[in-house]
Amino acid sequence: MSAESIKSFASLETPGYVGFANLPNQVHRKSVKKGFEFTLMVVGESGLGKSTLVDSLFDTDIYPERIVPSAGEKTKQTVKVEASTVEIEEKGVKLRLTVVDTPGYGDGIDNTDSFRAIIQYIDDQFERFLRDESGLNRRNITDNRVHCCFYFISPFGHGLKPLDIEFMKQLHNKVNIVPVIAKSDALTKKEILRLKMKIMEEIENNGIKIYALPDCDSDEDEFYKEKIRQLKEAVPFAVCGANTLIEVKGRKVRGRLYPWGVVEVENPEHNDFIKLRSMLVTHMQDMQDVTQEFHYENYRSERLAKGAPIPKRTTSLPDYEKTNGNMESISEKDRILMEKEAELQRIQAELEKIQAQMQQKAS
Ligand code: GDP
Q1: Is the pLDDT higher at 3 or at 174?
Q2: Is the pLDDT higher at 261 or at 177?
Q3: From ligand 1's centre to the CA of 241, what distance in Å?
Q4: At what angle do helices 273-282 and 50-58 cross, to 10 degrees?
Q5: Beta carbon of 114 within 6 Å of any ligand 1 atom
Q6: Whose CA is nearest to atom 9 of ligand 1?
Q7: What angle do the packed helices 162-171 and 116-133 form, to 10 degrees?
Q8: Buried b vs exposed e over 221-258: b needs ≥16 C-beta within 10 Å?
Q9: Which of 100, 112, 223, 251 has its CB surrounded by the most CB atoms within 10 Å?
Q10: Residue 193: what pLDDT?
């Protein structure tokens, strides 16, 4: 990993380079051929720069189109959840990226309902995966589960708002939360440091579990260890986005032009944009693993404990049992599918038996 990791991190710091070509370092060749699936959810009050940042991150116009509500509409607005998917290819590596936007979040006078639609969306994707997993075509499941959630924090407050704390508390067992300080060009370096410390303190005091970057192996090279240390230290990432290219000393850079100078999006001295992008690209696989092993498992076991029935599969195949072993008239492909189907039915029956036993114990 070491030589590759040096190359990956070095190239991720190249302006204008997204870095998906580094994905083969993380995934099996088979899934690279098939394409890598990743879903990023973006949450935060409107106007914090979410769409600008996401478009800057992937160097493309992928943010879901939206209609900006009028001031009057805002008071009665409920949260919507909108997904849009694009396929991006870089050096032969395909990424099927879905961005999930949550317009209306935090915009109402009463925000108690702000989480319901978001939680429902995340659970619906788990449910869909659960159903597909117990289906016949398990090898080709499209993974639409939400692997990461960028949570945008206002740079103008003195830390987290009650809404921020409540959101993270309700969602931290369902999704990998990555907190970001929006529009960090509004703050001085000292103010950013102070705000970061305050936010981390509040996250800890409220028992919130944000996405934790995994520790390095002890035999990892020093360059890689140092990069990971810098990424960990940068949380919550203080970012700045822009849709315009500006000329600075003969170079075209993504930036924001002010009367006193240019804030360069991809300049690590100016903000944490590059760090956030490196973190995302180098940890996509880890975030998927955490989603599978922690968040999805949580959902599955809670669902089993509640005793809700596992979704039944439907099939148009003839019933294996009813053939009485006379399989000659059936094609090889159908025969294999039918055997699989019978096996799955057996597993499903077992699961239902376990559910019934658990329900009996609970009552
Ligand atoms: P969203 O509603 O959260 O998606 O916000 P938008 O991306 O639509 O941005 C809202 C406004 O803020 C636009 O005028 C952007 O140009 C501006 N904006 C976006 N990102 C930044 C940033 O990093 N710094 C500053 N100062 N303004 C930004």
Answers
A1: 174
A2: 177
A3: 7
A4: 60
A5: no
A6: 49
A7: 10
A8: eeebeebbeebeebbbbbbbbbeeebeeeeeebbbbee
A9: 100
A10: 96
The whole model's pTM is what?
0.80
The SS3 assignment for 281 reads: helix
Which backbone phi and psi does 112 adopt, to 5 degrees? Answer: -60, -25
pLDDT for 34: 65
Q: Which long-range contacts (CB under 8 A, 24 or more apart) does 225-234 make?
A: 227/5, 227/9, 227/278, 230/275, 231/275, 231/278, 231/279, 234/272, 234/275, 234/276
Which atom of ligand 1 lies at the shortest distance from residue 46's CA?
A: 2
271 C-beta closer than 6 A to ligand 1: no
Residue 48 beta carbon below 6 angstroms from any ligand 1 atom: yes
Q: How confident is the model at residue 33 (pLDDT cuts 50, 70, 90)?
A: low
Tokens 């800890």 correspond to: 204
CA distances from 182 to 13, 42, 50, 143, 304 (A): 21, 12, 8, 29, 39
> Distance from the CA of 49 to the center of ligand 1, in angstroms?
3
**CA–CA separation, 236 and 213 (whole Å):** 12
**Could you read off the pLDDT of 257-298 as tens digits, one per residue?**
999 899 999 999 999 999 999 999 889 999 999 999 999 999
